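We emphasize that the prediction below concerns an isolated chain of 216 residues; any contacts that depend on oligomerization or on bound cofactors are therefore not represented. The input was used exactly as deposited, without trimming of termini.
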Amino acid sequence: MKSTESWGALGLHLALDLVAVGVLTFAVYYPRHRRRDLIPAYLALNVALFAVVAALARTGGDGGMALGFGLFGVLSMIRLRSDSIQHEEVAYYFTTLVLGLLSGLPQLGAGPAAALCALLLLVLYVADHPRLLAGARRSVVTLDTVHRDPAALRADLAARLGEPLDWRVVEVDYVRDLTVVDVRYREPATDRPAAPVRGSLPRPAERPAPLSREAV
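Result of the prediction step, given as a token string:
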């Protein structure tokens, strides 16, 4: 009887984990970032961590310390050895890990685990929403000049990109007269043409009057 209840609880936690990581991957991450190559990594990492945590908990092994070091090692490997992964994608990796960890703990009931998973999904959904700080951008630009005056550098960046919020000079090359700047800026608002009034049709262009024979 206990074995049946244990397998039932394991199946419930596994279903919770799959639903949570499915929402994270297919409803939040992919519609915003469109990187299909990271979807198998998210799913495999989540399910693998769930399996490890569930196995350690049910065998009675004391794997808490080893699990903590394993999580730290995985995150370090992802961040330091993958140059093409951005900071927001590291946040999705970390959330994937935590979802598998929470769902795989048998001591944590299904209700609290579901609430914590929903909290993680809500925080990441809001934090990575396109409308949150939509005008803020970051770029690494190469200028074809060297500015000795910070005010002149700021004016040049403002003319090229928009209002600079913060910047850092990465490289100055006096031989080629180049400056590489890592800049955070606010994108300027674009003026859009006014939409026509609903129900009104644009007037056709007036045709020029034909010339009379007398004028010819």
